[in-house]
């Protein structure tokens, strides 16, 4: 069984911003996943079952693994506050923890286990390469998108001793804005009732401390691997297009890109970039499989992309 996901048809607006769209009529979108016989072009067929035999992002399943995931969200929703995020951003903006290349970081990530993820059963470097290779197959000319996929989860190194050994709830899981009301579409929303921010009248309206349409760049997101990696890329002078940086910063913002919540905080540019995030998300989520990528075989290609868009060594 497969799930049918319509391909997003985006216009030529990206050409202006150094991002080129494919001639999508020429594409067969399958991301390398098994396709049904009658699959038509321009339609992405996503697998229905994850590596554990469940549907993807099923947070209600009665299983040991799911209990761990729920406990993860309890802690995350209680502890992510506006003040906490402010402190984290100040601390990590210093980028004084290490100097290393992007590829070195990919290798480091193998030591990391993500307790929030109900679908992933492989080392993190496999997830990076599986999503990058799947998107590369469908969008061969968007090299920036391949590299974006490769690096989108690198921020998970925050779990390692050298990078502060932050608890899981401060690194992984879905993200959400602070400084305004918590939307009900957040998974395990009920645990927000123990978050101290809920008592602040300033934070507890739909817009909270923000103005409608203020742009997501101005919104304080819960702290984690997304925000950190965006910071690292920007501060080290990456030449990735804005759409790539947008994908990295908001790829865990499922309440927005899956549920359509919080759109009142977006500006026009956010809406343009969201089209790319929707595309990216399918590959991030559905490429998690047991079919492993041969790291040595694809390494030269990704090294060439890293060289194109990043300095040789970055500050982390
Ligand atoms: O559990 C997952 C995590 O593995 C991902 O890296 C993150 O981006 C998701 O949003 C989260 O829910
Ligand atoms: Fe992620
Ligand atoms: Fe991911």
From TrEMBL:
<comment type="pathway">
    <text>Polyol metabolism; myo-inositol degradation into D-glucuronate; D-glucuronate from myo-inositol: step 1/1.</text>
</comment>
<keyword id="KW-0560">Oxidoreductase</keyword>
<keyword id="KW-0479">Metal-binding</keyword>
<dbReference type="GO" id="GO:0019310">
    <property type="term" value="P:inositol catabolic process"/>
</dbReference>
<dbReference type="GO" id="GO:0050113">
    <property type="term" value="F:inositol oxygenase activity"/>
</dbReference>
<feature type="binding site">
    <location>
        <position position="127"/>
    </location>
    <ligand>
        <name>Fe cation</name>
    </ligand>
</feature>
<dbReference type="GO" id="GO:0005737">
    <property type="term" value="C:cytoplasm"/>
</dbReference>
<dbReference type="GO" id="GO:0019853">
    <property type="term" value="P:L-ascorbic acid biosynthetic process"/>
</dbReference>
<protein>
    <recommendedName>
        <fullName>Inositol oxygenase</fullName>
        <ecNumber>1.13.99.1</ecNumber>
    </recommendedName>
</protein>
<feature type="binding site">
    <location>
        <begin position="173"/>
        <end position="174"/>
    </location>
    <ligand>
        <name>substrate</name>
    </ligand>
</feature>
<feature type="binding site">
    <location>
        <position position="152"/>
    </location>
    <ligand>
        <name>Fe cation</name>
    </ligand>
</feature>
<feature type="binding site">
    <location>
        <position position="284"/>
    </location>
    <ligand>
        <name>Fe cation</name>
    </ligand>
</feature>
<feature type="binding site">
    <location>
        <begin position="114"/>
        <end position="116"/>
    </location>
    <ligand>
        <name>substrate</name>
    </ligand>
</feature>
<keyword id="KW-0408">Iron</keyword>
<comment type="similarity">
    <text>Belongs to the myo-inositol oxygenase family.</text>
</comment>
<dbReference type="InterPro" id="IPR007828">
    <property type="entry name" value="Inositol_oxygenase"/>
</dbReference>
<feature type="binding site">
    <location>
        <position position="153"/>
    </location>
    <ligand>
        <name>Fe cation</name>
    </ligand>
</feature>
<keyword id="KW-0060">Ascorbate biosynthesis</keyword>
<feature type="binding site">
    <location>
        <position position="251"/>
    </location>
    <ligand>
        <name>Fe cation</name>
    </ligand>
</feature>
<feature type="binding site">
    <location>
        <begin position="251"/>
        <end position="252"/>
    </location>
    <ligand>
        <name>substrate</name>
    </ligand>
</feature>
<dbReference type="GO" id="GO:0005506">
    <property type="term" value="F:iron ion binding"/>
</dbReference>
<feature type="binding site">
    <location>
        <position position="156"/>
    </location>
    <ligand>
        <name>substrate</name>
    </ligand>
</feature>
<keyword id="KW-0963">Cytoplasm</keyword>
<feature type="binding site">
    <location>
        <position position="57"/>
    </location>
    <ligand>
        <name>substrate</name>
    </ligand>
</feature>
<dbReference type="Pfam" id="PF05153">
    <property type="entry name" value="MIOX"/>
</dbReference>
<feature type="binding site">
    <location>
        <position position="225"/>
    </location>
    <ligand>
        <name>Fe cation</name>
    </ligand>
</feature>
